[in-house]
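Appendix B. Raw example, untouched.
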Amino acid sequence: MSAEATDPGAPIRRRGRPRIDLRRLGRVALLGPVSRDRLPDAIGHVAEAHRAHHPDADLSVLHKAYVLAESSHRGQMRKSGEPYITHPLAVTLILAELGAETTTLTASLLHDTVEDTDVTLDQVREQFGEEVCYLVDGVTKLEKVDYGAAAEPETFRKMLVATGDDVRVMSIKLADRLHNMRTLGVMRPEKQARIAKVTRDVLIPLAERLGVQALKTELEDLVFAILHPEEYERTRALIAAASPGSAASGEAGATVTDDPLSAIAENVRAVLRDAGIPAEVLIRPRHYVSVHRVRIKRGELRGTDFGRLLVLVGEDADCYGVLGELHTCFTPVISEFKDFIAAPKFNLYQSLHTAVVGPGGAVAEVLIRTHRMHKVAEAGVIALGNPYTADSTSGPQTAEPADGERADPTRPGWLSRLLAWQQSAPDPDTFWTTLRADLAEDREITVFRTDGGTLGLPAGASCVDAAYAQYGDKAHSCIGVRVNGRLARLSTVLSDGDTVQLLLAEDATSGPSPDWLDHARTPAARIAITGWLGAHPQAPQGSYGSRPAGRRPDPQPMASAPSGSDRSVDRAATVVVGRPDATVRLAGCCTPVPPDAVTGFTVRGGAVTVHRQECPAVARMLAAGRTTVAVGWGDAAACRVTLVAESFGRPRLLADLTEAIAAADAAIIAATVEPPSEQRVRHTYTLQLPDAAGLPSLMRAMRDVPGVYDVSRAQHPAAAV
């Protein structure tokens, strides 16, 4: 099936194949004779479509399934007046056109038998096996008499759980919904709108995530026609006006009297022919919703906005060969280039996207992919055949290595996350609301763990989401994170390809702060945080305290420095200055101590300020033409230094730090401890050391204290000198 602009009321079909009259097929199913040695005429079209993808398929099981479905549905009619058997036939034909394997088609023919007839799951299992029985059970609705208003959300929950074990369940459901949407015109307007909204919020995002673009695009057009009829008719008129040879009117700039895409397509064919690259160049019309989105984005449609060029080649390498020829022979629009072959989308989609400027300045978007990629782009997981058979050759093999969630088409990362959080959402309303919000996230990123694993997260996810994705409820005790090796806030939004190292507190009783809810995007994280906060209403939220976002806490003194002292001045270290009687001050911006390499500058009043040579202030003053003063350290080994310790809050941390300082024979002259910020604490110590040579070992001893992740020399902004 192709995602072309079509009338949403008409089924999409292969070019050259006669239109299938399902009403006539239904009459044949009811009245026509069935021979023992051939398939019934009513499913001849299904068999033809199936054999086109699977020439060696055994059709006897389809014959058997059709006979059971037709006999069990006999006498039932659809609201449209057609025999009911036309519905499972149409659903099965949709899947056969997309290349579904025999087991899926068998279950599709039987998908309503257990729900609407006297056939039982045991009968299906006995006649067709466990696999078909599982698929039929997965798409069978729950009874309203048992579940009341919760029947619909709980049915979807049941379906999604079944999809977690077999994605073919959702393939059947999507085809079922597509045929129902095609025939929705017989329903009351209010019921049409209700079904269309559920389709928009749940089924279309699921079709997108499973990569079944052929179903997704037609469902979008059908929903568009029901929920936005005026915009739909306007878009339909624009597409009709843009048809080659039409003299149409409409919006300014929408009138098209020729087909610029055809001219560019001919040029592309000639270029590839001359380059010796065998390729098929097609014009791929946009569907209605796509044209509507382009019109909203650009305001005025161009002649080339009603379609795109599709270039199909045999090998992956040919895709890049085509790209090189196009960018050489045409002017490329670089901002439109995307490589989804090297970095496939999370729904298996692979293709090169670009745009080139053709004759007369017309810009055409171009999709470049192999025939295999095209099949997967159209049919998604359906094109994989039976992905649960190790030696299956019924579908194309993915090029992804099997080293992470995304590489497994039978359990995509988003589906694993969905199945995880739904277990914590027993309330149907919470599940239904959260499901719609989760499916609204249409992009996914991959972040790497330090142990070599990966995490699949929705775009915009934060470190809080990563913590719960990796550790589940253990993430309640998360006290910090490093992103790409650098310490970061838990609120940090992650980007595709980031490396995340999550740090957990040893105290398992610690819990999250309410602020975390402001940064959590995934349902799993939000549900877990909300559950913990609800279960611990009296707990000190955030384990070690929290503060309003964006507010820097004021440092609280633990011990006061002597009156008149300067925390950046080392009165114990002797500095030798090549200028007699000069007042010497150690710069507070870099806090030099022996044996640092130092340099000096004369400041106001004739004093000499001593800086470490690598201090940024030195470079600024040299650039300003300031003259240096020769300075060096004297014989005295003692020094005073200011150190800053960054740590995660925990009980007895202050005692352990002061014990480590005392063990190094350093005296604490002054100290300040800032209030916790996102469970992190900053300690500033002014210390007197008997020997400057002991400074490196002191800093190592402080870093070895559990919970301390960094110790550095104090850095303060340089004052104007």
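End of appendix B.
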